[in-house]
Amino acid sequence: MKEGLTFDDALLVPRQSPVRSRKEISLRTRFSRRVTINNPIVSANMDTVTEDAMAIAVAQNGGIGVIHRFNTVEQQVAMVKRVKRAESYVISDPYTASPEVTVAQMRQEAKLRGVGGFLIVNETHELLGVVSTRDTLFAAPTDHARDVMTPRDHLVVAPPDVSMSEARQLLHQHRKEISLRTRFSRRVTINNPIVSANMDTVTEDAMAIAVAQNGGIGVIHRFNTVEQQVAMVKRVKRAESYVISDPYTASPEVTVAQMRQEAKLRGVGGFLIVNETHELLGVVSTRDTLFAAPTDHARDVMTPRDHLVVAPPDVSMSEARQLLHQHRKEKLPLVNDHNCVCGLITSKDILNHEERPFASLDGRGQLLVAAAVGVKADDVARAEALAAAGADAVVVDVAHGHSDICIEQVTCGSYGWHQHQANVTANRLGGCASCCLVGLTLWPAMSPPLRAWLR
Question: Does pTM top 0.85 for this prediction?
Fold first, then answer.
């Protein structure tokens, strides 16, 4: 009896293999003389096994499904058609509808055929428009296709002989033309109309970072101390940046224990080591301190200045990327002619900007963030601290927006933080109150007569 190795239900006899790569292996086989499949998998023609859904799944994975015969001819033909229409380079006979059909009729036909829309054509089969699920979502059942369709002049079309690459390019190009950009305030624009609520169970720094990375903005709640809220704003602003203008630095005399504690507190992986005049001496990263004794000093474990790759403060992103790649580095300190630290660029930040092109960023490439304040007297100081920390907008969080105390706070805020935006979020806010508060946020730019009228 031969010795073999078991693998599930197969017995494998060890032998030398001539295969150099898994890509060289092919499981293609013939199902019939003219039908070839990529995987030797066939689903059985049993009524409990193969109908159209199973046939689609098996074919998508390289096999073939045999639809059972225990049904009417019409039912079996319909299943075959559904499989053939499930995927195609070009749907040669797309479902069409007349502009006179009703929404109710289209919904019924779409459910029957398992499709999401129809091309709307006239008697001579000329294209008039397209009706998709979103067009009929809130339409009345008695509305007609002509009333809800996306008209021909709003569609992207191509000639019958278009190649797959050309079609892909057309679809991609026109999707890129769609913009969801909107204003969060007069001077703050976001790429997606998504704002996370200023609730203590919803938005702290982690949520604000995630929302801004996806094009929206998070409003950090106010149910904490000023120092805690300021720290959250700072963490968001430091999470991403084209250039970190004020990188964390340390003295060469600090110990490894102190650096580990500070790194954990600030959520960073290393420090630039500088002297009293802010000249760069070296860099300490996590790998430098990994096996170091807690009592070792930064000067003993740092990567010294002459082993670093640095760049001038005006280096471009493409130049920074090239330098980091060329020297296989993750950090690029920016120094001036006197070797003084002016900033830092990291490979992580460059990759973040490339992977998330629609992130909401300020002029320095930092993530946008807003912060909430209340309507008490000490909230003005809180707002000023948040503005100084880099908050892009201040949101006045109040239960009833149309109240004297809220109006006074917004007016005071407009004087005190005119370079930042004061938005208002309230549980109750009528139309008159909205007009009043919108006017008050524009207070610094108003003429004296208009201010008098608002008062």
Answer: no
